[in-house]
Every structure is written in structure tokens, then in C-alpha cells.
Amino acid sequence: MRKIISFMHISLDGFVAGPNGEMNWIKVDEEIFDYVGKRISEGDTALYGRVTYQMMEDYWPTAGDAPTASKHDIEHSKWYKKVQKVVLSKTLKDEDLANTKIINDRLVDKINEIKQEEGSDILLFGSPTATHSLIQLNLIDGYWLFVNPIILGRGIPLFVDIKDKIKLNLLTTRQFTSGVTELNYTVDR
Questions:
Q1: Pairing of strands 181-187, 168-175
Q2: Domains of the chain by residue range
Q3: How would you write the pLDDT of the chain (189 residues) with one tens digit per residue?
């Protein structure tokens, strides 16, 4: 069975964005892009909430075509165009959306159907609201966190309204020269 892995940059105090959705505190560089790019390139399905999907859709389909596009932009743009996208949204319609499936009802049933399909892990990118919903429904199987060396003090937390403990098993860690630390966990079921 395929697994849903939440991929998220996070502050040391557990926030995934500032109070107004700011992400200008996230440290990324070529070392992180190369490392993440290898893992993402193995994936065939990306899961997004509506807001994150619309941000991605506004940028990635053409990002690699720009004359000044970086290696990361070119590679990620190619991947984005070919990957199957699943979007959690009550307002989007999926007509004319390439490689995109919209889930707007029966979330547990439809996510479990996708998890049963052939393929690799499903990467949930950002999307704090969608992540909160999937955590509440016990649908996330792992967390791939990039802990940034900053304390925000306030913002949008990764974990909210957790009803039951979620036990995790640490798979890997990695320290980047930027000070970011990768923590890769699976959910202990």
C-alpha cells in the first residue's frame, strides 16, 4: 500500500508559516534542492490543498522555460508537469486540469482508494489546512520535516487539535550546511 508522506519546512517551535502565511524564513539552497530533488523525482503523485496547489500551478508549469531558470527550477518544472496531482478542495473543479484529480467529498474513502493504487509514496507538499485534516483522519503515514534554525513565536502550527498521541519512528536525519536539519519519520501504527 502507498503511503502519504507530509513534506514540510518547519520552525524550531513547530510553525510551518508565519501568522499571515509568510514563508520568507525558510532556508533553501542548492544542497537542499539537490537532496530533495532526488527523493521527489522518485515520486509519481503529489498531494496539495487548494491554496498550495494554486500557488504551484501559477509557477511550476512554466518555471523551467525561463531563460534564467535555475537547475532546480528546470528539474522541478519537468517533474511537476508529469506527476499526478491530487488536490483537496471544496471549490475547485477538475475539468481541464492536466494530471489533476480534485477530492471534494468522501475524503477518507477517496484517499484510501489512491493509497491502494500502484505507485510510489504520495508526497503531501506544504498545505497546512489539508495536512491538519489528514492528521485528524489518521491518513498521514510519515513526516519528512526540514527544521529551520529559527523560532517564530507565532504562526500556523503543523500540529493542531491532536486528539490521540501519534507515535513516530525516526528513519533518518541529515544536517545541512545552512543549519537546516532533516527529520524523516514514519507513523508507528
A1: antiparallel
A2: 4-187
A3: 999 999 999 999 999 999 999 999 999 999 999 999 988 888 899 999 998 999 898 989 888 899 999 888 898 899 999 999 999 998 887 667 888 999 999 999 999 999 999 999 999 998 888 999 999 999 999 999 999 999 999 999 999 988 889 999 999 999 999 999 999 999 998
Residue 84: closest CA among 62, 59, 102, 108 = 102
With beta carbons less than 8 A apart as the criterion, state whether 187 and 141 touch: yes
Please work out, in degrees rounded to the nearest 5, the angle formed at the alpha carbon of residue 71 by the alpha carbons of 67 and 75: 100
Number of residues in the chain: 189
**CATH placement of domain 4-187:** 3.40.430.10
On whether the CB atoms of residues 55 and 128 are closer than 8 A, the answer is no
Q: Which three cell numbers stand for residue 187?
A: 507513523
CA distance linking residue 5 with residue 21, whole number of Å: 21
Alpha helices (runs of H) in 64-117, residue ranges in sequence order: 71-82, 107-116
Strands 142-148 and 122-125: unpaired
Please report, as a single letter, which amino acid is at residue 166: I
Which amino acid, one-letter code, is at 141? D
